[in-house]
Design a protein that fits this description.
alpha+beta, 4 strands, 4-stranded antiparallel beta sheet
Length: 182
């Protein structure tokens, strides 16, 4: 699977202090055609994912599939064991007494749902061992009290002067150009 980030690209960081202004800046920069690579914030900002154009997650679907698999496996294994492989006549009760099978079925559903959620999160976030190092923060403690919008040069037609003009219109505190990517 190809990497999300192109080789030898440069990053530019726009530093702001206000969360609302950062949210408006992200929306404005996306409308102007800039590729927002990431936004570093000291706390979650409501609406930032939508402003960045990040699609809704499908991790809940993975959780549902995992829970269904756990339910099927738990109920199926117990039903097969109780009815086919080792039927026991206990007090004249039915071989397939569903209330007795529910605790194990529930626990396996929860276990498989948890595993599917964690695996889905790791796959969706691309958190796997790899040789490349992610870029570091543009400055020490920059996301402690400031908001950083990271823009990636996506093609050779990237105009740094136009970015400086957009940064001036937005009113950024600092513009860091050519932030090194390892």
């Amino acid at each position: 699977m190809p990497s999300r980030r192109p080789e030898r690209s440069r990053l530019h960081a726009l530093v702001l202090r206000d969360p609302e202004r950062t949210l408006q800046a992200v929306r404005r920069l996306r409308l102007d055609g800039y590729g927002i690579d990431d936004v570093h914030t000291p706390f979650p900002v409501h609406g930032m994912a939508e402003a960045m154009g990040i699609p809704p997650t499908r991790i809940s679907t993975a959780t549902l599939v995992g829970a269904a698999a756990g339910l099927t496996l738990g109920l199926g294994l117990q039903a097969w064991t109780s009815v086919v492989d080792w039927p026991l006549d206990i007090g004249g009760k039915s071989y397939l007494a569903l209330p007795a099978l529910m605790p194990v079925t529930f626990e396996l559903s929860v276990l498989f749902a948890a595993f599917a959620t964690v695996i889905g999160l790791l796959v969706r976030s691309r958190l796997r061992p790899r040789g490349e190092h992610p870029p570091s923060q543009p400055g020490a403690g920059v996301a402690d009290d400031r908001f950083v919008i990271v823009i990636r040069e996506e093609d050779a037609g990237f105009d740094a002067a136009a970015l400086r003009g957009a940064a001036a219109r937005i009113g950024v505190e600092e513009l860091i150009e050519g932030w090194k990517v390892f």
